Amino acid sequence: MGNPATMDQADEPLFEDEKFHDHCGIVGMALDQDVAPFVYFALQSLQHRGQESCGITTLDGLYELKTHKAMGLVDQVFDPATVKKLKGSTGIGHTRYSTSAGSTEENAQPQVVMSAQGGIALAHNGNIPNTDELVTELKAKGWAFSSGNDTEVVVRLLANKLTKHNGNHIGAIQETMSRLQGSYAFALLIGGELYAVRDPWGIKPLCVGQMTKGAKGHIVASESVALDVVGATFLRDIKPGEVVRVRKDKIETVAILPAAKPARCFFEYVYFARPDAWMDGRLNQEVRESIGRILAKESPVEADIVVPVPDSGRSHAQGYAQAAGLPYQEGLMKNRYVHRTFIMPTQEIRELNVRLKLNPMKHILAGKRVVLMDDSIVRGTTMKRIVQMVRDAGAKEVHVRVGCPPIVAPCYLGIDMNTRDQLVAAQKSVKEIETMIGADSLAYISHQGLYTALGFKEDELCTGCITGKYPVPVAGEHLRDGTAVPGTPPVPTCC
Ligand code: SF4
Fold first, then answer.
1. What is the CA radius of gyration of the chain?
2. Over the stretch 217-230, which tens digit does the pLDDT of each residue have?
3. Which end of the chain is more exposed for a tag (fewer CB within 10 A), N or C?
4. Ligand 1 pocket check: which of 20, 463, 477, 494 to mutate, most ligand atoms within 8 Å of Cβ?
5. Ordered domains of the chain (ranges, CATH)
6. What spacing in Å lies between the alpha carbon of 405 and ligand 1's midpoint?
7. What is the pTM of this model?
8. Range 314-330 average pLDDT
9. Burial readout 36-61 (b: 16 or more C-beta within 10 A, e: otherwise)
10. Which atom of ligand 1 is nearest to the CA of 183?
11. More confident of the two residues 145 and 47
12. Distance from the alpha carbon of residue 32 to the mean position of ligand 1, in angstroms
């Protein structure tokens, strides 16, 4: 069992930021005009998927690659002059989040390498746990690594296979995919062509659209919101294991790996992807409202109002309020201009951190029995402070409802989800967490309730972080069928 003092202090991360982070957003476009301004706007719409670094690579002429990437948000890294210099009608872009240890410019993407067959540029969303084995193999062939992150390993593997296949891109991509055990969605420039690639489990999302306003061409992106922003119409999700060649006048499936058992990351629907993103034919906003409705039926409570923790709990709270017949009220106002705040050394200043981000609306909360709704609880420390803040604003009761089952295990597949000792539900029962956060009651959606809301069966999803069973082998963990995988769990090292 965890020691609350330890969880609140020594083990806290560098930043006061409890939410999980997806590691990346990717985009690739082929147009009838310079692509960089469009990629820039698409990246802005994917900023929520990665806020530490970003970059764009364009294909100028037949083979020349031009790249600009740096630490910072999209509008900090790019200005009109930089975008203008990135000539070419085909390009890829990337927004990246990382752990603080990996937050360096050399890890920014796209990753570019030169091979005997020309330049290769890769934008990757995901994580590949069998990187160590591949590094050993490539080092034995004389390759040196500069960053050592899994994306560099993939791009070097691609270069190696491209040589082996005498410049045949599709052969190189297929053989590379056959070596990767993990989650990946790629936007890839290789040999003067743009490809979109999705892992055979479909863990990470990737969709394709056609430009229908202004410029002509095609776009692939992590989320459909990027299509909306550049004036493209959603065509479809890329299939698990599919390799699509993207040109301005057509998209074409050029290979498809034998389908593995599907394992979409359920967290994309619950939290990562924007509510206005379409995934697998459903709008995320609707999925989240459905989670709230199911949770209201599973865990009802006598209350006066339903209040979301903004922004993540908003859609869930709307669903809960509808099903419970309670008023939905914005009782916490979010400061949109705070990005991340450092962990402060004293408790008093920590409270200020939360207050800086959220301001309780006393005239809404005072005297009320409040259902407080969020999408997930990771460490529990932030929820504890929010509950106290709502009480301090005069709420009579605070009942916390959570739109994701307890998170009991790390993510090794592309999410910044650390180790079990940082996950409160890996160490405490629901009742103990309820006491720790100071709520009058605490309830999470059930596993079955979640799967019903998503419209998938359990074995069509990755549920590693809520079951401890993963779709691909992770050393020291269990597979979905319960088989134990030997070895010590790796420290997650994402793109
Ligand atoms: S372990 Fe959890 S967060 Fe990671 S890919 Fe699987 S479902 Fe998503």
1. 23
2. 999 999 999 999 99
3. N
4. 463
5. 24-262 (3.60.20.10), 280-479 (3.40.50.2020)
6. 12
7. 0.90
8. 98
9. bbbbbbbbbbbebbbbbbbbbbbbbe
10. 5
11. 47
12. 38
Chain-centre distance of CA 432, in angstroms? Answer: 29
Indicate if 207 belongs to the active site. no
pLDDT in tens, 391-414: 999 999 999 999 999 999 999 998
Residue 16 confidence class, pLDDT cut points 50, 70, 90: very low
Which residues lie with the beta carbon below 6 Å from any ligand 1 atom?
A: 203, 265-267, 411, 413-415, 462-465
Q: Which of 107-111, 231-235, 450-454 has the lowest mean pLDDT?
A: 107-111
Q: Which of 40-44, 163-167, 254-258 has the highest mean pLDDT?
A: 40-44
Query: CB within 8 A of 457, min separation 6: which ones?
Result: 451
Residues 6+ positions from 345 with CB-CB distance below 8 Å? none
Pocket test for ligand 1, best of 23, 415, 494 (most atoms within 8 A of CB): 415
Could you tell me the pLDDT band of residue 15, with boundaries at 50, 70 and 90?
A: very low
Pick the closest to residue 469 from 460, 456, 482 (CA basis): 482
Backbone φ, ψ for residue 280 (5° rounding):
50, 40
Cα–Cα distance list, 102 to 14, 147, 157, 252, 446 (Å): 13, 9, 21, 35, 35
Q: What residues contact 483, with CB distance under 8 A and at least 6 apart?
A: none
- Closest approach atom of ligand 1 to CA 268: 8
Tell me how far the alpha carbon of residue 219 lies from the centroid of ligand 1, in angstroms.
Answer: 26
Q: How far is the CA of 474 from the centre of ligand 1 (A)?
A: 12
**Average pLDDT value for the chain:** 89
Residue 398 main-chain phi, psi, to 5 deg = -130, 115
